[in-house]
Amino acid sequence: MDDPYHNNVNQQVTEGGEYTYTQDGGGQDGYPYQTDYPPQDEDAASDATEGADDDEQMYEGEYQGIPHPDEIKEARRAARIEAKRKARQAAQQEEMEESLPEQYESIMEDCGHGRFQWMLFFVLGLALMADGVDGFVVGFVLPSAEKDMCISNADKGLLGWGFAIGSEIQIHSWRLFILVCLLPALAALIGVIFMPESPRFLLESARHDEAWMILRQVHDTNWKAKGEPERVFTVTNIKTPQTQEDEFIEIQSDTGTAFQRWTVRHMTMLQQVMANMMSLSAPELRLQGLFLVIVWFCLAFSYHGLGVWFPDMIKYMQYEEYESKVRVFHRERVERFHFNFSLVNQIHREGEYIHDKFANIEIKSVKFEDTLFENCYFEDVKSTNTFFENCTIKNTVFYNTDLWQEKFKDCRMENATFLHPKKGCHLNFQEENDIVIYMVSFLGSLAVLPGNIVSALFMDKIGRIRIIGGSMLASSACTFLLLLSFSQGAVICWQCLFYGVSVAAWNGLEVISVELYPSSKRGTAFGILNGVCKFAAIIASFIFAAFIGITKIIPIFLAFAALVCGGLLALKLPETREKILS
After folding, report:
1. Across-strand partners of 354?
2. CA distance linking residue 321 with residue 365, whole number of Å
3. Residue ranges in 482-579 assigned as alpha helix (H)
4. What is the chain's Cα-based Rg?
5. Which of 55, 64, 423, 492 has a CA that sits 20 to 30 A from residue 375's CA?
6. How confident is the model at residue 359, as a pLDDT?
7. Is a pLDDT exceeding 90 seen at residue 294?
8. Element containing residue 247 per DSSP (H, E)
C-alpha cells in the first residue's frame, strides 16, 4: 500500500550523486527538488524517516524560524526576475529620454515658427520689463515719496519693496510714475492669462491629450497666419516615459470622481515640485547649487543695496553743504511784523514774536528753540523740515497750514488754535527735489547699456566664469574707491562705472544658472535663485538705508566684502561655454 505521507514521491539518483524528487506522472507536473545531502542506502533512508512524517518536520523548521529551501529558491528567483524587469524598464526609459529632444524638435518643426512665438515673445518681454523696473524705480521715486509720506532715513528701506498710499491720497507725479511702471506688469499678467499652458509641463504631468491639443493650436495658429490653413498637424502620438504617477492618474481619470481627479492631479503636481526641489540637492548638483546661491545673494545684496544708497548719499552731501550755510538768530525780538517772505535754512534761539503775522510763505529747514509766540497768526504756510522745540505758544492761530502738533516738541500751548490743518508733507518740486537726484538714477540706468553690449559680445569668447568673476571683482574695486570720494561728482562717476561693470556679472550669472541644470530641473532652480535675489534685495534696502547720515564706511565695506566673496566663489563654478544642454 502506498504511503499517504510521501504523496507517491519517486526517488531518482543523478550521476553526481544528487537526489531528484518527482511526483508520479513526472514531466512538467512534478516539482524538482535537489539536495546536497550525501547518498544513502534505501534501507537507511527508510529507517531515518520511520516514525516521523513530513508535516512534523516542516512544523519543527517553521517553529525554529528556518525557511524551507523551496521558499528561499523561489524568493531568489522572484528577486532576479524583478531586478531584470527594473533594468529593462530603466533602459527603456533612458532610451526614451534620449530620444525626447529629437521628438520635441521634430514636433516644433512641424508646428513652425510664426505668430504664436511672436505673441509669446511679446508677453515675456512685458514680464521682463516689469521685472527690470524695480532696478531703477526706487531711485527715481524715493526722494519724492519720502517727503510725501514723511519718511525718515531709517524707514526708507520700506520703499525698496513696497510703497504705502497713506491715509489721504495726494496725486503727486511720483505716484503717477508708479502707475506708469505698473502697466507692463498688468499687461504681462493679462497676456499670461490668455496664453496656453506649457506642453512640456502637461506631458510631465501625464496630461498628454491636453499637450497634444496645445501643440495643434500652435501649429494651426502659425500656418494660418502664413496663409496655409489647410496644413494638417501630422503628429499623432507623443512618446513619453511612463511613470507610476502617470499610471495612477490614468486609473483615476477613468474610475475616480471629478473631485478625486482634481485632488490626484494637484497632489501629484505638488509631489513633483517637492521632488524637483529635493533633486537639486543631488550629489552631482549640491556643491554647484550652493555656490550659485551664495553668488546670487552676494551680487543682489551689493547691487540693490548700493542702488538705494547712491541717490541718498548724493542727497545727504547736498544736505551737509546746505546745513553748513545755516544762519543763526539769537534773542531776536520781532513785534507787529508781517512776514511775507520765506524763511530758509535758519535757527532762531530764545526769540520773541509778538503780534506777528506769517501768511502765504514757505518755511524751509527752520528750527525755533526756546522761542515765544504770542498773539501770532499763521495762514497758508508750507513747511519742510521745520520744528519748534521748547517753545511757548500763546493765543496763536494756525489756519490752513501744515504745522500740526507733531512738529511742536516739548512746547507749552496756551490757547493755541489749529484750523483746517494740511496733512502730509507737501512738495514743491522746483525746490525740494533737486534735479541732481534724478540725474543720478537716470545715469545709473543708462550706464548698464554698454555693459550689456560688451557682455553679449564677449560671453562666448572668454567664458561665463571669467565674465562673472571679473565683473564682480571689478565692481568691488569701484565700491572701495567710493571711500576716497568726497564730492558729488566723484560719487556719480563711480556709481555709473559700478552699474556698467556689474551688469555683465548679472548676464553671465543668468546664463550659467540655466546651463548648469538639466531641463527638468532648470525652472525650479532658477525660481529658487530669483527668490534668493529678492530676499537679498529686501535685506540690503533696510541695511543700507539705515546708515544714511550716520556713516558711509559700513555700507561700502558690506558691498565690497559681498562682491569679493561672490567673485572669488564664482571662479569655482564649472564652465558651461561648450557644454551641450541636456
Report:
1. 335, 374
2. 13
3. 488-515, 519-546, 553-570
4. 40
5. 423
6. 92
7. yes
8. helix 244-255
Residue type, 539: I
Task: Encode burial over 41-50: b for 16+ CB neighbours within 10 A, e otherwise.
Answer: eeeeeeeeee
**All residues at 6 or more sequence positions from 71 whose CB lies less than 8 Å from its CB, including other chains:** none
**Over the stretch 243-287, which tens digit does the pLDDT of each residue have?**
555 555 555 555 567 777 677 777 777 777 787 778 777 787 888
Contact of 242 with 227, CB cutoff 8 Å: no
pLDDT, position 11 = 43
Angle between helices 435-462 and 137-148 (to 10 degrees): 160
Give the Cα separation of 533 and 482 in Å (integer).
24
Model pTM above 0.85: no
DSSP bridge pairs for 344? 364
CB distance 309 to 328 below 8 Å:
no
Distances (CA, A) of 426 to 153, 160, 201, 432: 18, 22, 52, 10
- CA pseudo-torsion sign 46, 48, 52, 58: negative
pLDDT winner (highest mean) among 221-230, 233-242, 331-340: 331-340
What distance in Å separates the CA atoms of residue 107 and residue 559, rounded to the nearest whole number? Answer: 48
Quick one: angle between helices 464-481 and 488-515, nearest 10?
Answer: 160
**From residue 324, how far is each of 157, 318, 432 by CA, in Å?**
27, 10, 18
Average pLDDT, the chain: 75
Buried (b) or exposed (e) across 340-375, using 16+ Cβ within 10 A?
Answer: eeebbebebbebebeebbbeebbbbbbbbbebbbbb
pLDDT at 67: 67
Task: Compute the distance between CA of residue 213 and CA of residue 117 in angstroms, rounded to an integer.
Answer: 17
SS3 (DSSP) at 39: coil
The residues with which 308 forms a beta bridge, in sequence order, are: none
DSSP string, 194-234: HSPPPHHHHHHTT-HHHHHHHHHHHHHHHHHHTT-TT----
The SS3 assignment for 480 reads helix
CA distances from 23 to 50, 71, 195, 326 (A): 20, 19, 71, 117
The HSE-up count of residue 181 (CA atoms within 13 Å, CB side) is: 17
Question: How confident is the model over 170-187, as a mean pLDDT?
Answer: 72
The tens digit of pLDDT for each residue in 390-445 reads 999 999 999 989 887 778 999 999 999 988 887 655 444 444 445 666 677 777 77
pLDDT tens for 513-541 read 888 887 777 778 888 888 898 899 888 88
487-515 pLDDT, tens digit each: 777 888 888 888 889 888 988 888 888 88
Amino acid residing at 337: F
- Do 244 and 283 touch, CB atoms closer than 8 A? no
Q: Which amino acid is at 117?
A: Q
Percent of the chain predicted with pLDDT > 90: 15
DSSP string, 328-340: EEES-EEES-EE-
On whether the CB atoms of residues 20 and 36 are closer than 8 A, the answer is: no
- Grid cell 524583478 is found at 82
